[in-house]
Design goal:
The complex is a heterodimer of chains A (152) and B (81). With 152 residues, chain A is an alpha+beta fold. Helix content of chain A is 37%, strand content 18%. With 81 residues, chain B is mainly beta. The chains are: A alpha+beta (152), B mainly beta (81).
Chain lengths: 152, 81
């Protein structure tokens, strides 16, 4: 979670609010913030750390591990209308990549701002070419975009 | 004798006794028909206690309408990853 906290300013500039959730109590959240996380980042965890002690919210989102009685690494991007735009779930032993999360948020924001007139092809990053879907583009993507463009 | 276990990213599994073991049914994490999470569908609302800015608070997802939200679940405080 410290990796997300470290990029919090950038997320705020993108208009993104963060909520973290685990099955720990709010008291343990405080201890973790005070004794470890605040030493890894500049200051305290800047977003709310939610406590889902019975796993009911994790179950609602389909990421609760009944055997381990913990949440797995589920990450959801929710748009201003409350619609889920993307999610990723990892087994606990591998951490996430906040860079990729921010890339996806920027891509979803671009699509939303263009009201769907522009879409972002594979490997898109800010500044790279977008595609404008429509009858004229059918069968012509090869002329407009290359695999190499995505891999750059 | 107490047996030492390797501290990992998850809590140690809770050992049910043998009788209960038989009674237990395999439950899929996501039940079909239940609030299935899908892209393009509304995020289920919830209210949750939280530690925020030095205080213990209660917040709801619905309070964040009009903003982008990054919702991050993780296995537990003081785990390693």
């Amino acid at each position: 979670m410290s990796a997300v906290a470290d990029r919090y300013k950038e997320l705020q500039e993108l208009g993104v609010e963060v909520i973290s959730i685990s099955v720990d109590s709010v008291f343990v959240h405080k201890m973790w913030n005070d004794h470890e996380l605040s030493k890894m980042i500049d200051g305290d965890i800047p977003f709310p750390m939610g406590s889902d002690q019975d796993g009911s919210i994790g179950k609602l989102y389909g990421i609760y591990d009944e055997e381990g009685k913990v949440e797995t690494r589920g990450r959801f991007i929710i748009d201003p209308d409350g619609i889920i735009q993307g999610f990723e779930v990892l087994n606990p032993t591998v951490g996430r990549n906040i860079e990729e999360t921010i890339r996806q948020i920027k891509a979803f924001q671009l699509v939303r701002e263009s009201e769907g007139r522009e879409v972002t092809p594979a490997g898109w990053e800010p500044g790279k070419k977008t595609l404008k879907p429509g009858p004229d583009l059918v069968g012509k993507v090869w002329q407009e975009w290359s695999v190499a463009e995505g891999a750059k | 004798m107490p047996v030492e276990f390797k501290a990992g990213c998850q809590r140690p599994a809770i050992k049910m006794d043998m009788v209960e073991e038989e009674k237990r049914e395999e439950k899929p994490i996501i039940k079909e028909g239940d609030n299935m999470i899908k892209v393009g569908k509304p995020a289920p609302d919830f209210t949750i206690p939280a530690f925020y800015e030095g205080k213990f608070v209660e917040l709801s997802l619905s309070e964040f309408k009009g903003k982008w939200v990054l919702l991050c679940f993780y296995p537990g405080d003081f785990t390693f990853v």
